[in-house]
């Protein structure tokens, strides 16, 4: 196995992991929203900014942290610049972003698989 094949295999695995992981997160989020809708009668909008804020609070940022990720968390809470980007992140549904990320991840995995198949056929 040469370096190109190794890189393609690693990239294929990472693409598949991102693709199927984001697909599972999309299905979970959409299922949660549907459950809340059936239960309360109101659709719960979860934007990308709210999803990022929740993700960062659970995994990466604690109170009093400093650094780039903590700065991102503070910007998501109260933006002082890039207000248009913040508005877009509030409006775009997190489920749509997860679905788009799953498509991109699967496209990367399929592309790498096709390149690996071409290398096998050329030998």
Structure write-up:
The protein contains 5 helices and no strands. Helix 1 runs antiparallel to helix 5 (94-122) and helix 2 (48-59) crosses helix 3 (68-77). It has helices spanning 3-40, 48-59, 68-77, 83-91, 94-122. By secondary structure, the protein is mostly helical. The chain folds into 2 domains: 1-46 and 94-123; 48-92, no CATH class. Helices cover 80% and strands 0% of the residues.
Give short descriptive properties of this protein:
extended; mainly alpha; 123 residues
Summarize the structure.
The chain has helices at residues 3-40, 48-59, 68-77, 83-91, 94-122. The two termini are 12 Å apart.
Order of helices and strands: HHHHH
Individual helix count: 5
Q: Report the count of strand segments.
A: 0
Major sheet description: none
Kindly give the count of domains.
Answer: 2
Poorly predicted runs: none
